[in-house]
Amino acid sequence: MNAAIDKPVARRNVRSALLIAFCYASIVLSMTSVGIFVSFVVEIGRDLHISRAEAGMALSIYSIPAALACMPIGRLIDRIGIRYGMMLAGILAALGDIFLAGASDTEMLYGGMALEGTAFGCMAVACPSALVSWLDGNLRTRALSFWSTYGPVGYACGLLLAVPFATGTHWRQSFAWDGGIFCVLIVLAFWLPAQSAIVEVRSLRAGLKLFLLDRAVPRLALALALPNAVAYGVSVVTPSYLEHLYGLSLKVSNGGVAGAKILAMVCGGVLTGYLLIRKVDFRNLYRLLVVMGIFAILVLFFPYGTFPIALLGLVMWLLAFGGLVGSATAQLPLLVTSPRDIGLASGIIGQITSFVCLLAPPVFLAISQWNILWGLASGTLLLAAWLVPGGRTGLASQTGIGTHSPDRTPQILHEEKRT
């Protein structure tokens, strides 16, 4: 009898784990092109005859589609379903990599980055919608906290993908390999449930009402967007800064930065998820992590240290950043109490995050003094600490969101199509 009960439970646990892994891998892959581009920004500028400022514009173009279209993407995902949304993202990313691998002028370069950015926008909406819609309780909180660490990890994976092609003019091959990986992702997306997400398609008026009347949603969005902007800006300047300051090769700089990013972000996200389900106060945790992040960035950019000390600062910053975005992302199903608003709320948060991050690459790349970089990052993080909304970290709430029900059919096994 127990064996018969344990089998479906084990099957559900395996499917839940596979869903979390797939969503994480999907959003990480959508960020790899940024890491590849930053690794080869000098070579790309030399081959395409563009300046450093024009290269920074290409990174900004990556953020434009998500900055302008995350809410419409959210409505589209609600309409066509998560599976087809992820497949669409994979197709757009593969096309973007084709453009980047064959780029011969700025138009192709910018077009490829725009396609990559659109794919990222689709993933940034589809993945949290999938986790919120198909998971429940403690598992959902920990999954959202873990998933939110995707930014620096995706960037780090791009750095690692660039390492085998770090010499000569082989940067095009990195983008070609990235496109091939996305083709595999498109095939794997067929294994997701075919039906639409459980959220209903909401009107644009409902989205504006949610944004204007529920102050927790835009404040949560800014609490996610501002640390992401700092992380984005720090990421684009760190490899070249460390390479120049300590005289390192691209392979050593990329390898050290990428290893530190992946380790720190995964540990930070997992640890934050554990703390949240133990009912640690969300806002106090967030502000403590802001202080830790400000100190860590000072250690990272301080010019009179050593490379190992700088890496230690990077690890500390990424642990803090993983905690910041992990704790904030885990508040989404607690602050947005209506299941009908999950898709729109994900779109609003993704759009605000992308819009704020749009400014980060050119601003950070234009700053040459380490103390100004640190001051800018510190001020941005302090603003986020001031804006962060209060939230419940306990999973049981009056709305019933995040509570276990013995009669609830696991949504990851099959979805009910609304009529």
Radius of gyration: 21 Å
Low-confidence stretches: 195-204, 392-419
Give the CA-based shape: globular
Given helix and strand content, the structural type is mainly alpha
Q: Provide a count of the helices.
A: 18
Major sheet attributes: none
Average pLDDT taken over every residue: 75
Task: Compose a concise summary of this entry.
The protein is an all-alpha fold. The protein is built from 18 helices and no strands.
Describe the structure.
The chain has 419 residues and is an all-alpha fold. 77% of the residues lie in helices and 0% in strands. The chain has 18 helices and no strands. It has helices at residues 2-29, 32-39, 41-48, 52-80, 82-101, 106-134, 137-147, 150-162, 171-188, 204-213, 216-246, 250-277, 282-301, 307-329, 332-335, 342-357, 360-366, 370-387. Helix 1 packs across helix 8, helix 7 (137-147) packs across helix 14 (307-329) and helix 11 (216-246) runs parallel beside helix 17 (360-366). The longest helix has 31 residues, at 216-246. 54% of the residues are buried. Mean pLDDT is 75; it is low at 195-204 and 392-419.
